[in-house]
Amino acid sequence: MSVDCNSGPGWYEVITPRATTCIAYVHEDGSLYLPEGDLTAEEFAFAAARGNVHRLVRADDQPATERQDGTQ
After folding, report:
1. Cα–Cα distance between 52 and 33 in angstroms, integer?
2. Strands 10-15 and 53-55
3. Residue 68 belongs to what H/E stretch?
4. pTM of the predicted model, to two decimals?
5. Three-class DSSP category at 72
6. Strand-pair partners of 54
7. Handedness of CA 36, 40, 43, 44 (dihedral sign)
8. Fewer C-beta neighbours within 10 Å, C or N terminus of the chain?
9. Which residue stretches of the chain are H helix?
10. Three-state SS across 9-70?
């Protein structure tokens, strides 16, 4: 079973209906932190429903056993 990498708490990039990019933090309880103030919770939900919300991850966030370069 695979885990959806675009779900759960963490930082997300949002492409808004105005074709701008914002960031948002989704908390464990589903509430949002919108640091830039240009995005509303409704716009976040609208963008998410259309596949325009993408989780931001760091390359070194992968567990060592999943790295592609073979290092641990």
Report:
1. 17
2. antiparallel
3. none
4. 0.68
5. coil
6. 13
7. positive
8. N
9. 41-49
10. CEEEEEECCCCCEEEEEECCCCCEECCCCCCCHHHHHHHHHCCCEEECCCHHHCCHHHCCCC
- pLDDT tens per residue across span 51-61: 999 998 877 76
Instruction: Name the token pair of 59.
Output: 């390359």
Half-sphere exposure in the Cβ direction for 55 (13 Å, CA) = 14
Q: Token pair for residue 28?
A: 């464990």
Q: Write out the two tokens for 40.
A: 């509303």
Mean pLDDT of the chain: 79
Both structure tokens of 33? 């932190």
pLDDT of residue 2: 43
- pLDDT tens digit sequence for 3-24: 466 778 899 999 887 778 899 9
Scored b (16 or more CB within 10 A) or e, 13-44 reads ebebeeeeebebebeeeeeeebeeeebeeebb
